[in-house]
Amino acid sequence: MFKRLHAAEAARPGVPAIQYAQGASTQVFAYLDLQKRLLEEPGKAKLPVFQGRIELENVSFTYDPESIPVRKDISLAATKAK
């Protein structure tokens, strides 16, 4: 009986991490479901299938239009893996 109790005590510190992971996974799945529902709304334009390359040139980003950009003039290109 004492060996079982010791094993339970040893596992106890990991319980909050497991609970956190369960909550996080619930949020991830809710987000994925939301994306699917938004994409399936009637009247939504269908995006074309990714053909091979996406390019962004001189993109800037701010959280507030009146604030300093947190990212400025970023350019990147992403190509489809073969």
Please outline the major beta sheet.
2 strands, antiparallel
Order of helices and strands: HHEE
Whole-number count of domains? 1
Helix percentage? 40-55%
Which structural class fits the helix and strand makeup?
A: alpha+beta
In the sheet with the most strands, the strands line up as 1-2
End-to-end gap: 57 Å
Number of helices: 2
Instruction: Estimate what percentage of residues fall within beta strands.
Output: 15-25%
Count of β-strands:
2
Oligomer: single chain
Compute the gyration radius: what is it? 23 Å
Taking pLDDT < 50 over at least 5 consecutive residues as the criterion, the unreliable ranges are: none
Describe the global form: extended
Q: What is the arithmetic mean of pLDDT?
A: 78
What's the short version?
The chain has helices at residues 2-11, 15-39; strands at 53-61, 71-79.
Task: Describe, in plain words, how this protein is organized in 3D.
By secondary structure, this protein is an alpha+beta fold. It has one domain. 43% of the residues lie in helices and 22% in strands. The chain has a two-stranded antiparallel sheet. The longest helix is centred in the first third of the chain and has 25 residues. The model has no long low-confidence stretch (mean pLDDT 78).
